[in-house]
């Protein structure tokens, strides 16, 4: 039966591809026809039938170009474009319509038909569906554009610069002492951190702080839980009655740092997950559970309205500084590893965690692929994360009220002890 089906498909491949080209044209035509459904007959330039036929014509043009003449496709494409231009020129009369989106959609429909027949069905289908979605969401896209701020657009363009422009230009080879510096992979980690921060910023931007401390803190952990800790600690002095809620928010933000660590490991060195997921999950739960308990007990006091806690983190200068810090940590890690062994790695992780956990996490994750053992990287990451959270607990106690300091410090200390115990137990068991 399978042989018969395969033979049928192979024999009728051109007809099947032409049918797909027709259906893809009809898909875009349905969307275009729906938009223009209220226009009276004669004013609609291209609807379901026209787009379906144009898709089919694109498929036929691809067949003719492959079997008759290579000039068939470009000549038919020019003819379709000329016909469409004449129709759109006539449409500029009454009422005037200066949009060329419909014209571009029609020409794309022709190309999708050709791609379905001459190149790849999956590519043609994916592009046609994406085109239909873009055409159908005009109002939503324009609404997002109107809400977009200048610094956010600038940040998005900078993200594109450091990812799709700079990244491919860097050499993908080992350089430096011990070959620990790979410019391509180093910059790819910078792009990874910048992307996570960018997503976290827009999660807060879309949700808004009016939804309360709980929602804001959860997403703030994607970007900068330190910034949130500083702000909430200062706010606790202005509104002591809301101290418990602010403490819950700090614990949530700091706990969200741990899933981010697992994400880095999953992307860079999946082999670490088997040793990393248990202690990291326990550390996260040790912060999440007290936070939820505090919230359940005190949420009736009301939510604190706060301004945006996290500014756009994607500035090229900061990305370059992070890359330099990452390279420095990797070089120091190689030197300490050769001089002191695992003890040097643990010392580096503890001191680095005082200021930042992302750089040392990415460094150790990357080093676990070549220069250090996986268990050493796991323990170093846990030391860095625990140290970083203890620093934030100290900031909360110094800048905030005594109440918020104690509420934050207890779970932070418990998280450190549980994480270290789990990591050491897994190390001994392994």
Can you tell me about this structure?
By secondary structure, this protein is mostly helical. It has two domains: 2-144, no CATH class; 149-429, no CATH class. The chain is 77% helix and 0% strand. The protein contains 18 helices and no strands. It has helices at residues 2-11, 13-35, 48-67, 72-91, 101-118, 121-136, 138-147, 150-165, 183-207, 213-220, 225-238, 243-268, 273-298, 316-340, 342-353, 358-367, 374-399, 402-429. Helix 3 packs antiparallel against helix 4. The longest helix is centred in the last third of the chain and has 28 residues, at 402-429. The radius of gyration is 29 Å and the shape is elongated. Mean pLDDT is 75; it is low at 302-310. Pfam families: DUF4010 (PF13194), MgtC (PF02308).
Q: How is the topology of this model organized?
A:
Elements: H1 2-11, H2 13-35, H3 48-67, H4 72-91, H5 101-118, H6 121-136, H7 138-147, H8 150-165, H9 183-207, H10 213-220, H11 225-238, H12 243-268, H13 273-298, H14 316-340, H15 342-353, H16 358-367, H17 374-399, H18 402-429
Domain MgtC/SapB/SrpB/YhiD N-terminal: 18-142
Keywords: Membrane, Transmembrane, Transmembrane helix
Pfam families: DUF4010, MgtC
């Amino acid at each position: 039966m399978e042989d018969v089906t395969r033979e049928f498909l192979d024999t009728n491949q051109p007809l099947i591809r032409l049918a797909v080209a027709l259906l893809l044209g009809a898909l875009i035509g349905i969307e275009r026809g729906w938009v223009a459904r209220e226009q009276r007959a004669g004013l609609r330039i291209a609807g379901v039938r026209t787009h379906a036929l144009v898709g089919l014509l694109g498929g036929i043009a691809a067949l003719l170009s492959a079997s008759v003449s290579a000039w068939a496709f470009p000549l038919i494409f020019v003819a379709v474009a000329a016909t469409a231009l004449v129709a759109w020129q006539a449409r500029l009369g009454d009422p005037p319509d200066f949009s060329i989106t419909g014209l571009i959609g029609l020409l794309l429909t022709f190309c999708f038909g050709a791609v379905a027949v001459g190149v790849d069905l999956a590519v043609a289908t994916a592009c046609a569906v994406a085109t239909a979605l873009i055409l159908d969401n005009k109002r939503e896209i324009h609404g997002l554009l109107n809400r977009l701020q200048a610094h956010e657009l600038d940040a998005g363009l900078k993200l594109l610069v450091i990812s799709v422009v700079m990244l491919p230009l860097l050499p993908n080879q080992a350089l430096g002492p011990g070959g620990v510096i790979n410019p391509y992979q180093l910059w790819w980690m910078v792009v990874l951190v910048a992307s996570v921060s960018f997503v976290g910023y827009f999660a807060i931007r879309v949700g808004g702080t009016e939804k309360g401390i709980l929602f804001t803190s959860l997403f703030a952990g994607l970007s900068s839980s330190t910034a949130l800790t500083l702000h909430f600690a200062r706010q606790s002095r202005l509104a002591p009655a809301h101290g418990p809620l602010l403490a819950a928010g700090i614990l949530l933000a700091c706990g969200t740092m741990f899933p981010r660590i697992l994400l880095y490991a999953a992307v860079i060195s999946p082999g670490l997950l088997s040793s990393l997921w248990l202690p990291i999950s326990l550390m996260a739960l040790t912060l999440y559970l007290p936070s939820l308990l505090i919230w359940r007990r005190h949420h009736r006091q009301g939510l604190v309205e706060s301004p945006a806690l996290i500014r756009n983190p994607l500035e090229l200068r900061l990305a370059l500084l992070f890359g330099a810090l990452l390279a420095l940590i990797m070089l120091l890690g190689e030197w300490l590893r050769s001089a002191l062994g695992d003890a040097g790695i643990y010392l580096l992780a503890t001191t680095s965690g005082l200021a930042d956990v992302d750089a040392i996490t990415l460094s150790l994750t990357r080093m676990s692929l070549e220069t250090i053992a996986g268990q050493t990287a796991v323990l170093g990451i846990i030391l860095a994360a625990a140290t970083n959270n203890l620093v934030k607990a100290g900031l909360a106690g110094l800048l905030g009220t005594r109440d918020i300091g104690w509420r934050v410090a207890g779970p932070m200390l418990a998280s450190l002890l549980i994480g270290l115990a789990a990591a050491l137990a897994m190390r001994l068991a392994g």
